Amino acid sequence: MSEPALSHRQPDRQTAIRQARAALLGPGEVRPTDALPALGLEPWIARSWQRCLADGHRPEDRLDFEPISAQQQRQVQDDNHALIEAARPVLAQLSRAIAGTRYFSLLTNAQGVVVDVQGPVEARSPAATIARVGIDLSERAVGTTAIGAALTELQPVWLHQGEHFFQDNQVYSCAGAPVLGPDGVCVGMLDLTGVEVPERPELRHLVARAARHIEDALTLQRPWQLLLRLNWPGTPMTDGVANESDGLLCLDGEGRVLATNAAARQMLPRPLLPPGAVLHASDLFALPWGLLFDHAQREAPPMDLPLWSGLRLQTLARLRHASAPAPSPSTLPSPQRGLKDLETALIRQAVDAARGNVAEAAQRLGISRATVYRKLALRPKQPADSGR
């Protein structure tokens, strides 16, 4: 087979970026963006460039990296204390992973303002001015960057030199990932940036992994009484050995859900609740929720955890303190109760969760309505007399 023509070869990265910039940012009529991915430009970059243009910016405009006021900085530090504390150990680990690469890490709040910096920053370099607490690195302030993109797209990103909108930013290469709080709302982002460094797209995986660790730390900061580590059956799960794929779900002493990490939110379908209602363990799990406290008090090995969907997870439940308040006796089955009583309690809880709708409860449990009536000694409702 003959060598393909030179014009048909995939362009190198720098050439592809220059072609993409000419196509979208060059003078004259803006060209369609549907062909840009063929040039190696990811669609989210094109969307960011277009937003910058719509705001009246041009790539040659000069940037002024000035920090927010001292008073604003103090307020930002206070407002993001929990995020900063959760991230500190992770940033220290990142510094080890990127040692020798001339990349450093930035942590920002949800608005893109830097709240912490770690790693080797060459203070004498003019480009290092971005590595200061209080600098606003949002898309609105400095155009297309990994920071603004991660906060807007809510996904891990990689950005290399000319993929930044402004020419002043083309010395940077950076990877970014959003950090979501225990309620699933973005609270900030983590960024790895290098100045005039070789391209390291693998840093996107590293920064995404580090952001998940920060999210787990934020989840565990909540004042929980019971922690459920969740995973699918067959996944090894032991005390003292964290699995990166584990879901984390925190409950208070009454079984209310206080916090979840991203993995738990993906494993557990969120039921429809009335406005203002608090999510409860009984809304998620098809068993009396007090059994989870019993499991934790006995420090038992992982147990199967049935969901209302019919799927099953496994969980390792652990109390925060030995003196953590136990659930009320009405919801915590006695160890002496037999399987028959446990089955009845499960069915009764399903009927209660369905607000008395026996058909709905039976469907959730995968049994017949007749079985529900028999187990609970209920009398089926008789249809109204149509002759009256």
From TrEMBL:
Residues 339-376 form the DNA binding HTH domain. Pfam families: GAF, HTH_8. SUPFAM superfamilies: GAF domain-like, Homeodomain-like. Residues 83-218 form the GAF domain. Gene3D superfamilies: 3.30.450.40, Homeodomain-like (1.10.10.60). This is Helix-turn-helix domain-containing protein. It comes from Curvibacter microcysteis. Signal peptide: none annotated.
